[in-house]
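Supplementary Methods, section 5.1.

A reviewer requested that the exact input to the structure prediction be made available. We therefore reproduce it here, unchanged from the version used in the analyses.
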Amino acid sequence: MSLKPETNQLLNQLEEKFNKINQDTDVHLEGLLHSKPITYWDYIQTDALLNLQTQRTILPDEMVFIVYHQINELIFKMILWEIEQISFNDNLTTVFFESKLMRISRYFDMLSTSFNIMREGMEVEQYMKFRTTLTPASGFQSAQYRMIEFASTELINLIDYRFRATIDRDTPYEHALEHLYWQAAGKDYKTGKKTSLLSNFEERYKEEFIRFMKKYNTTNLWTRFKELPEEDQKDVDLVKAMRHYDYTVNVTWVMAHYNAANHYLNSGKEKAEATGGSEWAKYMHPKYQRRIFFPELWSKEELDNWGNNV
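The structure derived from this sequence is encoded token-by-token as follows.
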């Protein structure tokens, strides 16, 4: 049987591919005889995905809460995937940088608008009941979100304002970790001791965080931007994308989260605490923490009023 020219070309390309990695092309082709066609459910692993939701109560709206947060974590994974492509690109261009940043911002735009699912998609009464079974767990403990912060900016921009003057590039990573802005939310503001919320979080992720901080110390988005030629740093589209990303993550998304939490925690006769016991309002609101990834891209007036108008 004669083969079509296109088939011969494909076979030659396959042989070239497998030769490069020291593989026998015939063995791989024979393997195709025994393989079964891929299906959507096998490729996406639908069954495994849909069996990852385990409720701790019998309240129906807890399922909404679980699925919603799992979706968030999947989107965080997509964001980290995009950031890595910028951070470790050896031939970084403004076009590539800007396109990836806008893609990431769209992910955060989706996260921001999706908070309506949390805000309007659960009965307050049900939430106030099943949330007690979550203690001391909290969304604060999203490791991927912390990694997004580490990969976005230099560590100094994530340090609690009270300690920035005492920290520089020679500061040990362990010390920097102890003075990150979110540490204050994980400590008992009366005793200064770490809550279970923070202790459990660090026990699980501290070493991983330190490795990640080292990895992105000089490859985070802000550092990569400042490594670009001076002319590229003035590129209008890129600067616009940087500012959009910064504001979207540190104001728009944060406030969507804040408003959803406020809807539930302040809905009863008495104000409720966050499940992890943090002083959540001051931790979350951008005007208090002033999380800013790219400070030099904002005017003094914009910096002074960060988060004040939301």
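The domain at 54-304 is CATH 1.20.58 (Methane Monooxygenase Hydroxylase; Chain G, domain 1). These observations are discussed further in the main text.
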